[in-house]
Known about the structure:
Elements: H1 2-12, E1 17-23, E2 31-37, E3 47-51, H2 61-72, E4 77-81, H3 101-110, H4 113-116, E5 120-125, H5 127-139, E6 147-151, H6 157-164, H7 170-184, H8 193-201, H9 205-216, H10 222-229, E7 242-247, H11 256-259, E8 269-274, H12 290-299
Parallel strand pairs: 3-4, 3-5, 5-6, 6-7, 7-8
Antiparallel strand pairs: 1-2, 2-4
Amino acid sequence: MRCLMVKSRAKIDRYDQERILIPLKDGSGDTISAALSRPRGETTRPLTVLIHGLTGLENSFYMRQSAGHFLALGYPVLRLNLRGVGRSRPLCATQYHAGSSGDLAKIFSGLPEELTKRGLAAVGYSLGGNLLLKYLGESGGKTPLLAAATVSAPLDLAVSARRLNHWRNTLYQRYLLFYMKTEAVAPEAKLTAAERKTVLRTRSVWQFDNDYSAKRAGLNDAAEYYARFSSGRFLAGITAPVLLLHARDDPWIPASSYDAIDWSRYPNLRPVLTARGGHIGFHGRDRTAWHDLAIARFFAGFRPA
């Protein structure tokens, strides 16, 4: 793993990086900070936007790994920090949640034309995949995306929350919860004293969502929060072509949520479930992640009109 990380970092570090700021213009004053990298020379490839998962950010390993692969193929790449995390944290009073697909709509529409003139594609990882699918379902034919892909996206948030409570996921849940709390109570976050106390006393992701996330989203509890924001209920509205990659041995997102869907009803969606791959794993033989190879091949078939 250490060699893989070194190689990935060296690959992306060959390219210059620019800081892109995108005001969300929703009255909050919040601004998204993203890292833009361009391939060398002229390109006809669309801008590819990478959307991290829960507690992720622009420099998460899988984000850098994918960016390096797409850049080598001639794709300009924009790595987001969602509202209230990473480089966006000092620029935001509020924070994204599982239903923040409206932020993606504002981000995509707020990009400079110079970046999107060759088209736009997006990849969502884990919870970022949930946001991307929800956004696509809500936008329908109005989305500017030529194509999209998800890696290990939860289609049913309640099922995933229950899986996290299994004893085998104890350490991972503690890891997630630590960073969820850290992000939520950061000095820039606009919280009441009661909200801050609520966040710090949570002992599971479900409790965090039940006592804090749901209330911040204007909902009653975790059950309503998961039911309202699970991407599986938005699939019918998706008109853009989407590749959905998931592994049956994912320890945190059960494949049953994929098996429960009649995919023949959604001709624009192409689910691919592999026997192995874990959660955003899919390690390739040449140290290039298999999901990056599959997504690049999928995106290659789409060009702006």
